[in-house]
């Protein structure tokens, strides 16, 4: 990490780092937790004076806000200086319209190119109301960050995370022009021909919002290029691709690529814990010595779980020699169950799973272990036991499971990876790349992965693990701070 002594770091994201404990004095304390982005941001607070602004997501969060200390701040366990967490208790209607109506049902669908375009989207008065609340939601973060910046006695850096807060950089810049601002996108970025699906004014507003930052970061070059393409297409601005910067409205925004990796030591330590060991024993007994094809996902439309199951069914049909010799372990955890598209997709996952069992199961062989209840230790256990890891998203900003699998695999795993995952930019040389829409190609890749000799599989897996650990969360976040200079 660069030298950040004597300056304050402000972080904003929809989700915080947080579980809570109540101290003897009655005050709530925020505790560190989670992985990926959360781990990276939390690690900075060990050495930096940091304020993390996030949304109150449920009744427990809202109760914490009501019981917070002076200024609405929660003390942050195990962090440096005056590091604290501030949660914003937004009106329920504002949050729901911003989070589910716009962020998850519109911007997510655009950037992941998920729309069933003959039927959706349709932008009318109801969306205009949702967008008004999305502005309100972003403005609440910008105001909170500006207030924190105004009270700081040292230079301030603000790092705003993800598509939920794409308008906040410009709003913050207008309120606190002395603050250096970065924005980071954890999703893909849609190419212009798909991005233009947004209403014209709103598409421009999103771009202008991010260009309020001094630096805009992306997970891979492909998404950064798509953002630059959209800026060139929809805004009257100067895009300098050689210098990786955009000049707009008197401001220069640099564009950077910051691939998020895995803290390998931390992940391996967690995977050695007794709860993981117990689940490994149970899963190994179920597998009964058979090869394991593993996938671990949220039941998210972009993760392409149904086609992954269909590719496995095609493998068993076209390569009968694998019947009885392989089991697929599919952990498909609940996601966004308040959205009808997600409930329907979860039902489709279970329906195809039952079809596979009906077609192939025998008294001595269960071809599929499908679990839909969230169990993190069980996921780690499966990744340790995997012979093959299937990661076939339709489109994904990065996909950390593709990186975690090779790091955790006890004997080395082959990775079948979608070309549409951001991780393919780093892992493509040693993974087996597939078109996520081509189930026949995916089935063939699964066969090649299962048949791969031990020496080749181990060599590939070691190379994948090294690439996955090259940019751990701490370095990933530090690179964003360094991009702001000063």
Considering the chains and any ligands shown, give keywords for the structure.
single chain, 486 residues, alpha/beta, Rossmann fold, 2 domains, twelve-stranded mixed beta sheet, six-stranded parallel beta sheet, 18 strands, 19% strand
Helix content: 40-55%
Q: Could you give a short account of the major beta sheet?
A: 12 strands, mixed
Number of strands: 18
- For the record, the count of structural domains works out to 2
CATH homology-level superfamily of the largest domain:
Glycogen Phosphorylase B
Strand content: 15-25%
Number of helices: 18
The coarse silhouette is globular
Annotated CATH topology of the largest domain: Rossmann fold
In the CATH scheme, the class of the largest domain would be: Alpha Beta
Gyration radius over CA = 23 Å
Could you say which structural class the secondary elements and strand pairing correspond to?
A: alpha/beta
CATH architecture group name of the largest domain: 3-Layer(aba) Sandwich
**Could you list the spans in which at least 5 consecutive residues all have pLDDT below 50?**
22-28
Average pLDDT, rounded to a whole number, is: 91
The span between the termini is 13 Å
State the strand order across the main sheet. Answer: 2-3-5-6-4-1-7-8-9-12-11-10
Describe how the helices and strands are arranged:
Elements: E1 8-12, E2 19-22, E3 28-31, H1 37-44, E4 49-55, H2 59-66, E5 73-76, E6 84-88, H3 92-111, H4 125-150, E7 156-161, H5 168-175, E8 180-184, H6 192-195, H7 200-210, E9 215-218, H8 221-234, E10 238-240, E11 245-248, E12 251-257, H9 264-271, H10 274-287, E13 291-298, H11 305-318, E14 326-333, H12 340-360, E15 368-371, H13 376-385, E16 388-391, H14 401-408, E17 414-418, H15 424-427, E18 432-434, H16 439-451, H17 454-468, H18 473-483
Parallel strand pairs: 1-4, 1-7, 3-5, 4-6, 7-8, 8-9, 9-12, 13-14, 13-16, 14-15, 16-17, 17-18
Antiparallel strand pairs: 2-3, 5-6, 10-11, 11-12
């Amino acid at each position: 990490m660069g030298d950040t002594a004597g300056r304050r770091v402000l972080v904003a994201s929809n989700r915080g780092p947080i579980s809570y404990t109540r101290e003897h004095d009655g005050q709530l304390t925020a505790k560190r937790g989670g992985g990926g982005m959360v781990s990276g941001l939390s690690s900075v607070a060990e050495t930096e004076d940091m304020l993390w602004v996030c949304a109150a997501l449920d009744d427990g969060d809202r109760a914490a806000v009501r019981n917070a200390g002076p200024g609405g701040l929660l003390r942050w366990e195990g962090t440096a200086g005056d590091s604290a967490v501030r949660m914003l208790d937004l009106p329920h209607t504002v949050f729901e319209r911003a989070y589910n109506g716009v962020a998850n049902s519109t911007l997510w669908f655009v950037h992941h190119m998920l729309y069933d375009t003959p039927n959706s989207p349709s932008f009318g008065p109801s969306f205009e109301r949702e967008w008004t609340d999305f502005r309100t939601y972003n403005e609440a973060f910008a105001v909170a960050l500006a207030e924190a910046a105004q009270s700081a006695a040292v230079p301030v850096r603000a790092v705003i995370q993800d598509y939920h807060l794409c308008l906040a950089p410009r709003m913050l810049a207008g309120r606190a022009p002395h603050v250096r601002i970065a924005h980071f996108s954890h999703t893909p970025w849609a190419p212009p021909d798909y991005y233009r699906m947004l209403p014209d004014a709103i598409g421009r507003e999103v771009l202008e919002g991010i260009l309020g930052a001094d630096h805009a970061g992306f997970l891979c070059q492909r998404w950064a290029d798509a953002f630059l393409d959209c800026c060139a297409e929809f805004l009257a601005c100067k895009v300098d691709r050689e210098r990786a910067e955009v000049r707009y409205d008197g401001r220069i925004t640099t564009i950077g690529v910051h691939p998020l990796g895995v803290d390998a030591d931390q992940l391996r330590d967690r995977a050695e814990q007794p709860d993981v060991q117990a689940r490994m024993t149970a899963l190994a007994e179920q597998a009964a010595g058979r090869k394991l094809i593993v996938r671990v996902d949220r039941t998210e439309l972009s993760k392409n779980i149904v086609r992954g199951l269909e590719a496995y069914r095609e493998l068993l049909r076209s390569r009968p020699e694998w019947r009885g010799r392989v089991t697929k372990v599919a952990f498909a955890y609940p996601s966004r169950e308040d959205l009808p598209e997600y409930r329907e997709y979860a039902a489709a996952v279970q329906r195809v799973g039952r079809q596979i069992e009906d077609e192939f199961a025998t008294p001595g062989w269960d071809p599929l272990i499908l679990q839909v209840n969230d169990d993190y230790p069980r996921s780690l256990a499966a990744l340790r036991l995997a012979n093959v890891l299937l990661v076939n998203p339709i489109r994904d900003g990065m996909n950390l499971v593709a990186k975690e699998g090779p790091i955790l695999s006890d004997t080395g795993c082959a990775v079948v990876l979608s070309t549409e995952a951001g991780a393919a930019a780093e892992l493509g040389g040693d993974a087996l790349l597939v078109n996520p829409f081509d189930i026949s190609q995916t089935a063939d890749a699964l066969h090649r992965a299962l048949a791969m000799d031990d020496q080749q599989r181990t060599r590939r897996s070691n190379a994948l693990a090294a690439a996955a650990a090259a940019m751990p969360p701490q370095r990933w976040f530090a690179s964003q701070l360094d991009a702001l200079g000063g």
